[in-house]
Amino acid sequence: MIAKYNPQEIEKKWQQKWAEDRLYEVSEASTKPKWYALTMFPYTSGDLHIGHWYAMAPSDVHARFKRMQGYNVLHPMGFDAFGLPAENAAISHGIHPFTWTMQNTDNMRRQLKSIGAIYDWSREVVTCLPEYYKWTQWFFLKLYQAGLAYRGKAPVNWCPRCQTVLANEQVVDGFCERCGAAVSRRDLEQWFFRITKYAD
């Protein structure tokens, strides 16, 4: 028995063994009942922190529980790499958003693997890569062709300096959180979905 627990040595050894054995990869050919576990993908705007694991640990525990019950558990992981959080972080660091996003994706992947969660990394998605967003485009076209996507006008928060729409959370006391300009409300043409018709 070892005298002292060395997590960097011991955990790395077993995580490497699990990866070599493809322990958490899922096969569609399995005869076990299927279970899909999904954890919210982190934004690629910086490093992971304890709050991420606080949110991810319960789904990891539940996925392990279902696996122990005999289910074929698909527990993928991905990175939410579109949107203003990542873009704003890149701009504040003077780095091109794609470079910033991919660097953070690589680092977050390393961090997530180091915690030993049971993600099926063969199913990883990165939302800013064509391999992923081609399917959201395909889905949008299907909705459009079915008459479920349409254009219309609706009020938005508008930053005149950034020349972009802002989410409510990005307007602080009437000013843009990014540049400090006064934000106005304006009607803007945008896409909408006929959700009720889709449900019917």
UniProtKB/TrEMBL annotation:
Gene Ontology biological process terms from the UniProt entry: leucyl-tRNA aminoacylation
UniProt KW Lipid biosynthesis keyword: no
Keywords: Aminoacyl-tRNA synthetase, ATP-binding, Ligase, Nucleotide-binding, Protein biosynthesis
Entries under SUPFAM superfamilies matching the protein: Nucleotidylyl transferase (SSF52374)
Residue intervals of the Aminoacyl-tRNA synthetase class Ia domain: 13-197
GO CC term, one of those recorded: cytosol
EC code: 6.1.1.4
InterPro entries xref list: aa-tRNA-synth_Ia, Leu-tRNA-ligase, Rossmann-like_a/b/a_fold
Sample GO molecular function, one term: leucine-tRNA ligase activity
One Pfam family per UniProt: tRNA-synt_1
PANTHER family reported in the protein's UniProt record: LEUCINE--TRNA LIGASE, MITOCHONDRIAL, LEUCYL-TRNA SYNTHETASE
Similarity field: Belongs to the class-I aminoacyl-tRNA synthetase family.
Protein name: leucine--tRNA ligase
